[in-house]
Amino acid sequence: MKEPLIEVKNASAGYGDSVILHNINITVNDNDFIGIIGPNGGGKTTLLKLILGQISPIEGSVINHIQPTKLRGAVGYLPQVSTIDRKFPITVIDVVLSGLMSSKGMRNRFSKLEKESAEAILRKTGIYDYRNKTIGELSGGQLQRAFLCRALISNPFLLILDEPNTFVDNRFEKELYNLLREINERMAIIMVSHDIGTITSYVKTIACVNRQLHYHNSNTITQEQLKVYDCPIQLITHGQVPHTVLKTHTQQ
Ligand SMILES: Nc1ncnc2c1ncn2[C@@H]1O[C@H](COP(=O)(O)OP(=O)(O)OP(=O)(O)O)[C@@H](O)[C@H]1O
């Protein structure tokens, strides 16, 4: 039976006087792999912040049922790379280990086992050789991988990824999605992406966010559905793989 991890009920959310999201209802269950699509400024990141508890609902509720354990963190979060301060003087390995702090409080000592798991995950994502570099020395794709390792290190119950493929190259992108598919066997995943073509091949369900949330109970998106939800797309060809991209929505 599916266990609910997070329940968002009739929630509205925003910043100050500005209400961005209206009447949001979504339950995130264990083993879910939810893809979130929508136009720029539609409120995708705001929805993630609401689910993460970084902002409180103005109306309605967000109930977090996750009980972290010694072996598992609650939520791992990969923010948009553009929000990361690359001037912060921290090495890649320390970024990854900092992913253990939220579950165990601030600390600067980590066990041998924890360091070994950090190294193993850096190997898996192909950036082990950069472990002692500072984050300012990394490319966008390498930085994204370092923060992905940070999100994964606590073996969380829920992994939240905000556009994880913005800077990664084609080869790692495929590896990334295969990795996500593998880890989805033991944790739920919510992933924001503009790459609908790829997202539909990997996620189990799709949510479209444009100030409101439209939850498609499948991983296919048809032109009909997008019309109903005022979520128009344009089909383009990118290399040999057809991709779909969002055009700007009209406001609702
Ligand atoms: N910290 C903030 N304070 C005030 N307004 C904000 C803040 N963060 C986002 N907004 C506004 O909220 C709206 C939704 O932003 P959000 O980042 O959630 O959209 P998004 O769908 O993730 O967009 P994108 O695809 O461009 O990342 C935008 O109009 C944005 O300007």
Automatic annotation (TrEMBL):
Pfam families reported for this sequence: ABC_tran
Cell cycle keyword on record: no
Stored InterPro entries: AAA+_ATPase, ABC_transporter-like_ATP-bd, ABC_transporter-like_CS, Metal_Ion_Import_ABC, P-loop_NTPase
Residue ranges of every copy of the ABC transporter domain listed in the record: 6-236
CDD domains (UniProt xref): ABC_Metallic_Cations
Organism field: Williamwhitmania taraxaci
Gene3D superfamilies: P-loop containing nucleotide triphosphate hydrolases (3.40.50.300)
Family to which the UniProt record says this protein belongs: Belongs to the ABC transporter superfamily.
Protein name, UniProt field: Zinc transport system ATP-binding protein
Keyword terms, alphabetized: ATP-binding, Nucleotide-binding, Transport
An MF annotation (GO) of this entry: ATP binding
